[in-house]
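During the reporting period the student researcher (J.K.) took over the structure-prediction task from the postdoctoral fellow and processed the backlog of single-chain submissions. One of the processed entries is reproduced below for the supervisory committee.
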Amino acid sequence: MPLRLIINADDYGRSPDISRGIRDAHLRGIVTSSTCMMNMPSVAEDIKIALKETPNLGLGVHLVLTAGRPVLSPEKLPTLTNNQGGFLKLEALIGNAKNINTAEVRAEWRAQIEAFFAASGKKPTHLDSHHHSSYFTPANLQTMLELANEYGVAIRLPLAHANDATISGLPDELAAEMLEFSPRILDRLQPRSPDAFFATFYDENATRAEFMRILGDMLPNGTFEIMCHPGYVDEAFAKESGYAYLRQEELAILTDPAIRKEVEKRGIQLISFAPL
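J.K. obtained the following structure tokens:
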């Protein structure tokens, strides 16, 4: 098997400018795939633009439990929402992880997938999750995998290396437990997925050096995924998001001709999740 690489931009639909940046990272750079936040106000229109302007960009669903408002009525999701009807913030969800009603998670994630169908007219290429919330508990992981198998789509694998929790991108307090339960659930449900996942091209490590390190760390063959978060950012977005202007730095790296040349030099085949 050749060395294949998926470069997936999370957060499509987070804002029109984030979506525009992701499309540019595909058209002018090496991004091959993105995942859509189906509970965001502009996402349906952003998907229509992507289908027209970037027909070869893979589009999946970025399952959300920690940002914005749910697709379903908040009254149906009492263990997932706050008094204002929005999703719990990341820290609150982690603190309440053991009390989450799995039926609520399944219903909301199914509604997000169905919203993608309604906006795009087709099924997503894959499922992953905002803040990796699908890996917070065994029940969340099983729910995502069962939905992926039901809809016939791939998933983001939670780990790059079986014994390396640092690659998962999970909060430290959850990573060790995930290392224990994920192999058992993955083995039982056998989802389609890349062979490994790299989450380290992020925040202060969203650098050319880190991207090059990841390329060098991949095995000579197999299918791998690199997570990224390119986008354009205005002042309003920067005030309400914890990860803002670094998205523009990611965009510059991902559209750098020298990075593309390095990918080509290594004989790496860029793909989306669709061929899996």
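The committee noted the following: Strands lie at 3-12, 33-36, 58-63, 126-129, 154-155, 196-198, 222-228, 269-270.
J.K. will present the remaining backlog at the next meeting.
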